[in-house]
């Protein structure tokens, strides 16, 4: 079974779905989203044996907006490339919000699964909530 495939505490994915509810391809995607969610909600340095796991302190990122967005984008890309081996050809793009006063930073992560299937995920950072990763579909 793939690492991080199910929540060991309750036998479910982070979104609440049970393993038996989805086919193998969907299980893989949900497992990747769970792994990314955990990584994006971890701060660098919080795991002693993996000091580069996670992302920089998000409160610092907000203090330095808009200049810090590129650094966060790079940190996401580097973390995914290192700690999510089921993805390759990783690309991370900042998805700009039309509201200049929004306290949300959204990224679209595009990649290929090892079988060549293309996937896209969206992650949105806010100042007061945990970061969530979900499948992304182009608007419109």
Account of the 3D structure:
The structure is a single chain. This protein is an alpha+beta fold and 140 residues long. The chain has a single domain, classed as Nuclear Transport Factor 2, Chain: A (Roll), CATH 3.10.450.40. 27% of the residues lie in helices and 23% in strands. The protein has helices at residues 24-40, 58-63, 69-83, and strands at residues 87-95, 104-113, 118-126, 132-135. A 4-stranded antiparallel sheet has the order 1-2-3-4, covered by helices on one side. A hairpin with a 5-residue loop joins strand 3 (118-126) and strand 4 (132-135). The chain is globular and about 45 Å long. The termini are far apart. The model is unreliable at 1-9 (pLDDT under 50).
Structural shape: globular
Oligomer: single chain
Question: Count the strands?
Answer: 4
Q: Can you tell me the number of structural domains?
A: 1
| The CATH architecture | Roll
Radius of gyration of CA atoms, rounded to a whole number: 15 Å
Order of helices and strands: HHHEEEE
Q: Can you list the strand order of the major beta sheet?
A: 1-2-3-4
CATH class: Alpha Beta
Under CATH, the topology can be stated as: Nuclear Transport Factor 2, Chain: A
Structural class: alpha+beta
Which percent bin holds the helix content?
Answer: 25-40%
Could you give the distance between the termini? 37 Å
Largest sheet: 4 strands, antiparallel
- The low-confidence parts are 1-9
The total of helices stands at 3
| Content of β-strand | 15-25%
Average residue-wise pLDDT: 84
């Amino acid at each position: 079974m793939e690492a991080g495939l199910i929540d060991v505490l309750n036998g479910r994915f982070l979104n609440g779905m049970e393993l038996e509810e989805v086919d193998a391809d969907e299980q893989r995607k949900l497992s990747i989203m769970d792994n990314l969610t955990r990584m994006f909600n971890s701060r660098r340095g919080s795991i002693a044996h993996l000091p580069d796991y996670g992302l920089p302190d998000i409160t610092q990122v907000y203090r330095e907006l808009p200049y810090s967005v590129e650094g966060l984008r790079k940190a996401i890309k580097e973390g995914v490339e290192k700690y999510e081996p089921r993805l390759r050809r990783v690309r991370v793009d900042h998805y700009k919000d039309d509201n200049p006063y929004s306290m949300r930073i959204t990224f679209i992560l595009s990649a290929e699964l090892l079988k060549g299937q293309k996937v896209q995920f969206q992650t949105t950072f806010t100042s007061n909530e945990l970061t969530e990763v979900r499948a992304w579909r182009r608007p419109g």
